[in-house]
């Protein structure tokens, strides 16, 4: 495992005050993660109308955002090694501000590739932030309660995710945009596209202020332990020598894919089930509330009443049950079951990270960057959903998540225990 830099440790004295200060700062970062990430649920129907896209084309919103994790994850580790964790996070926040800035010319020109470029740059900054922040949360306390601390971060993330569609939805006014579907009124579409500019100016401002705060903060650095885990071979020099970590990356890839499907397809799915835009735009908030409920359960129960690997088992089973329920029902019940996938997904991220990072020693940064790369599941798997929705319909397309939840169940049952290739 990694540890906090000993020189910085002496400054904060390993005190609860220093730890709490670090948690508050990282909590603010997770809030930003959530706000920026879960805007995609609103951007998909918004850009579908404003840029005159097909359903499949609209899901390139998630592809452009999450594919950045594949491209940037290896770069993230080098960036953090060059700048250090604290300055690296400040740099990432500035990079995100640049991505948000690209939304202004994209809205003015109503050019979809420029929107996608902005999303890619935003995702690139988040890749660096995720690589840095998750090890902090895992390391600043006992390993057995890491899932609890990550659950607290998850609440910050999902509170932002619940607020984002409501706040930004006020500016985008999707309920008024419904009448523009299929229109040839270019002036009306131009006016609609421009609505995205004011909220993104606010996002840019917040990102730059947070970058300055992190830069001036007393966050300690994260360094590798001097010794490898005593149970691992001295010859273990590659991630491939840790099968549980490799499987953890695959599991996280799958998890992010199903999480993005649950959150980012629900507005379109609500419309498919007969709800109007005004009603459907609130459905992602239901998904986020379900996730927050799961995080609260995790904070209370882990590790006192349930181990993090057992929590992962329960969540995977719930994912299968809720997905099948949504496929075989209709109307509000079916939409509600998709929202409840938020509950099923809630404790997966908090459990997968510590299980995958266990016993990897000096490879902590490398495995962390690979786990962040696994977030690219949010780019690939939703596209598979979009393709299936185009072939069949948006309800039958949810079959794609059932085998994925079963793989997550396998990792919880056995995959995380494999320590020898």
Automatic annotation (TrEMBL):
<comment type="similarity">
    <text>Belongs to the major facilitator superfamily. FHS transporter (TC 2.A.1.7) family.</text>
</comment>
<feature type="transmembrane region" description="Helical">
    <location>
        <begin position="314"/>
        <end position="332"/>
    </location>
</feature>
<feature type="transmembrane region" description="Helical">
    <location>
        <begin position="283"/>
        <end position="302"/>
    </location>
</feature>
<feature type="transmembrane region" description="Helical">
    <location>
        <begin position="192"/>
        <end position="215"/>
    </location>
</feature>
<keyword id="KW-1133">Transmembrane helix</keyword>
<feature type="transmembrane region" description="Helical">
    <location>
        <begin position="111"/>
        <end position="129"/>
    </location>
</feature>
<protein>
    <submittedName>
        <fullName>Sugar MFS transporter</fullName>
    </submittedName>
</protein>
<dbReference type="InterPro" id="IPR036259">
    <property type="entry name" value="MFS_trans_sf"/>
</dbReference>
<feature type="transmembrane region" description="Helical">
    <location>
        <begin position="56"/>
        <end position="76"/>
    </location>
</feature>
<keyword id="KW-0812">Transmembrane</keyword>
<feature type="transmembrane region" description="Helical">
    <location>
        <begin position="88"/>
        <end position="105"/>
    </location>
</feature>
<feature type="transmembrane region" description="Helical">
    <location>
        <begin position="370"/>
        <end position="391"/>
    </location>
</feature>
<dbReference type="InterPro" id="IPR005964">
    <property type="entry name" value="Glc/Gal_transptr_bac"/>
</dbReference>
<feature type="transmembrane region" description="Helical">
    <location>
        <begin position="397"/>
        <end position="414"/>
    </location>
</feature>
<feature type="transmembrane region" description="Helical">
    <location>
        <begin position="242"/>
        <end position="263"/>
    </location>
</feature>
<dbReference type="InterPro" id="IPR011701">
    <property type="entry name" value="MFS"/>
</dbReference>
<dbReference type="InterPro" id="IPR050375">
    <property type="entry name" value="MFS_TsgA-like"/>
</dbReference>
<keyword id="KW-1003">Cell membrane</keyword>
<keyword id="KW-0472">Membrane</keyword>
<comment type="function">
    <text>Intake of glucose and galactose.</text>
</comment>
<feature type="transmembrane region" description="Helical">
    <location>
        <begin position="23"/>
        <end position="44"/>
    </location>
</feature>
<feature type="transmembrane region" description="Helical">
    <location>
        <begin position="150"/>
        <end position="172"/>
    </location>
</feature>
<dbReference type="Pfam" id="PF07690">
    <property type="entry name" value="MFS_1"/>
</dbReference>
<feature type="transmembrane region" description="Helical">
    <location>
        <begin position="338"/>
        <end position="358"/>
    </location>
</feature>
């Amino acid at each position: 495992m990694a540890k906090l830099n000993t020189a910085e440790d002496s400054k904060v004295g390993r005190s609860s005050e220093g730890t709490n200060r670090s948690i508050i700062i990282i909590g603010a970062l997770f809030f930003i993660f959530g706000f920026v990430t879960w805007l995609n649920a609103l951007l998909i129907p918004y850009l579908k109308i404003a840029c005159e896209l097909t359903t499949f084309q609209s899901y390139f919103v998630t592809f452009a955002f999450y594919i950045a994790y594949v491209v940037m994850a290896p770069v993230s580790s080098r960036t953090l090694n060059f700048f250090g964790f604290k300055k690296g996070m400040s740099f990432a926040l500035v990079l995100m501000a640049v991505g948000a800035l690209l939304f202004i010319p994209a809205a003015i020109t109503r050019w979809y590739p420029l929107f996608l470029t902005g999303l890619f740059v935003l995702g690139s900054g988040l890749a660096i932030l995720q690589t840095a922040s998750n090890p902090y949360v895992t390391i600043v306390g006992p390993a057995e309660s890491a899932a609890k601390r990550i659950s607290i971060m998850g609440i910050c993330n999902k509170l932002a995710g619940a607020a984002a569609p409501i706040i930004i939805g006020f500016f985008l006014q999707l309920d008024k945009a419904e009448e523009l579907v299929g229109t040839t009124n270019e002036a009306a579409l131009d006016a609609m596209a421009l609505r995205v500019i004011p909220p993104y100016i606010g996002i840019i401002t917040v990102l730059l202020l947070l970058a300055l705060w992190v830069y001036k903060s007393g966050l300690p650095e994260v360094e590798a332990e001097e010794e490898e885990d005593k149970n691992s071979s001295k010859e273990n020099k590659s991630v491939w020598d840790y099968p549980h970590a490799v499987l953890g990356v695959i599991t996280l890839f799958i998890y992010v894919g199903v999480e993005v499907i649950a959150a980012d397809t629900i507005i379109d799915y609500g419309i498919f089930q007969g709800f109007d835009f005004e009603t459907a735009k609130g459905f992602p908030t239901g998904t986020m509330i379900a996730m927050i409920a799961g995080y609260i359960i995790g904070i209370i129960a882990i590790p006192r009443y349930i181990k993090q690997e057992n929590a992962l088992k329960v969540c995977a089973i719930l994912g299968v049950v809720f997905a099948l329920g949504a496929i075989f029902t209709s109307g509000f019940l079916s939409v509600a079951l998709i929202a409840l996938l938020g509950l099923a997904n809630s404790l997966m991220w908090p459990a997968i990270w510590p299980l995958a990072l266990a016993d990897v020693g000096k490879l902590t940064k490398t495995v962390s960057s690979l786990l962040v790369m696994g977030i690219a599941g949010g780019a690939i798997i939703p596209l598979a959903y979009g393709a299936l929705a185009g072939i069949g319909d948006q309800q039958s397309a949810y079959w794609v998540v059932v085998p994925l939840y079963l793989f997550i169940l396998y990792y919880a049952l056995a995959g995380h225990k494999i320590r020898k290739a």
